[in-house]
Structures are given as structure tokens and as C-alpha cells.
Give the backbone structure.
Amino acid sequence: MAVLRYAPGAEVPAHRHEGYELIYVLEGEQSDERGSYLAGTFTINEPGASHRVFSRTGCVVLIHWQRPVVFI
């Protein structure tokens, strides 16, 4: 589990989840190919899911990875 701070324009390359990923957006807005998530949003990425994460405005998220991700 970690608290991550994304600077405006930051992004994480495409990756696949080997376990569950739980994300709670504390501040700002985090986005991926499925949409944008504002402060107060809780999202779950299931095992096998893949995406690229970015934040146009910057954000702070609380995140939990059940297993390490695999960059693709």
C-alpha cells in the first residue's frame, strides 16, 4: 500500500495487474482509458486488467497492489 502524488501531466506506462489493485483518489483527478476519477472515487482493477494511468491536473491517491504489476 502507498500514497502516490502525481505531478500535473504525469503518467504510468501501460501495465497489467497480476492481482487486485485498489485505488482511492484523495485529491485531484486520475485517469486511464476507461475514464477519469475525481477525489473521493474508489476504483478496483481486477487481476488480468491492463491500463495506462495519467493525471492532467495532478493527484494524490491511496493505492494497494495485491501483487506486483507487469509493464507491457
